[in-house]
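Response to reviewer comment R2.3. The reviewers asked that we include at least one raw input/output pair. We reproduce the pair for Ammonium transporter here without editing.
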Amino acid sequence: MLEALDVWMIVAGALVLLMTPGLAFFYGGLTQTKSALNMMMMSFASIGIVAVVWALWGYSVAEGEGIAHLFGNPGTDFGLYTIVSEAPEELIGVGFGATFAIITTALISGAIADRAKFSAWLVFVPVWVTLVYCPLAFWVWGDGLLTTGPIGSFAGEAVDYAGGLVVHMCAGVAALVLALVLGKRRTFSTPEKHKPHNVPFVLLGASVLWFGWFGFNGGAAEDAGQAGVIWINTLLAPAAALVAWILTLRLSGRRPTAMGVASGIVAGLVAITPACAYVDPVGAIVLGAVAGVLCCLAINLKYKLGYDDSLDVVGLHFVAGLWGTVAIGLLGRGELLAIDEFDYAGGLFYGGGLDLLWAQLVASLVTLTFTLVATAIIAYAIHATIGFRVSTEVESVGIDTIEHAEEAYIIDSAAAASPSQKV
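Raw output as returned:
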């Protein structure tokens, strides 16, 4: 008989899976018309490839029997054969975990819009999720380095409820690496040529992401009390970030935009992800508001520093993910942390001292370093063999036409002609 929490995790998993098509709309609307389909295809390809990898060996690497606190044994349950035979009810959690791996990988694609070979992406996805995402998930959510392993024993157990380290910081750092490996777009220095081609798609995507995020953050809730905390915080943090983003634009002399609203929502959602179960509503508002300001300022750094993060994956996911992870060490409440058996009195601002903050800082540094090095090795290997970037000619014509033999928008000139022009 299905328990209530099992039913909720099934529903939550479906909500999280829906987030990846939502991301496809968000990213697709942000790109140029001639590469919109390619951008969306990278998200859908992530669903197909990562789901298969997760079932065959990814789940075992992320949650199987630990090997030296580094990763789970990929042979623990290849193809989920043993779970099906002995504990099929556990497949609900397996599927829920798969949706996290899927969207984490899809997030990276936003940094390489308009210029990445689709074939190279198809190679990158299974290698990266196997060698980077799954081990990091084991480090944070399993018997890994940042929990019971040597780093966790030294600095304290890392706290990350739904993926500040594993999902957003990891994806943001990987996105930066790919942006640097592939190099800038031809017209990077003229940002007006890269304005979103479909802002309503961007808003639609942000709305679907926010909707799905209630499952993303709340799917593993222990009980109704923890679910209530997570639900209200997942509402409040992006709301505060949205307001803060608009105010930041106004105070800097710019007009509030629909793009600012969408970006503010995402910044707040990312920031609350690791802390959703461990801060109170006021803490969620503070956390979200700071994320809105930080990310609004951070997305313009790519022009000053010269890296072409096409759709601001670094400025949104890395920055907000880092802030949300560290903020637990400031705003975490001891009684909420105790529900998940964390031995911390709370964050610095709640009388808990520096212990939790120190653990979060160390975990963030380890995540950054590991993801950067591992992703760089994978990306350079692909770039040096089959090549990761399309030619200048393909970039000029558009990836959709060359890579997929399709176009997002086909306008029939005869049908579009005015009545007076028709024969």
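The radius of gyration is 21 Å. The chain has one domain: 4-404. Further pairs are available on request from the corresponding author.
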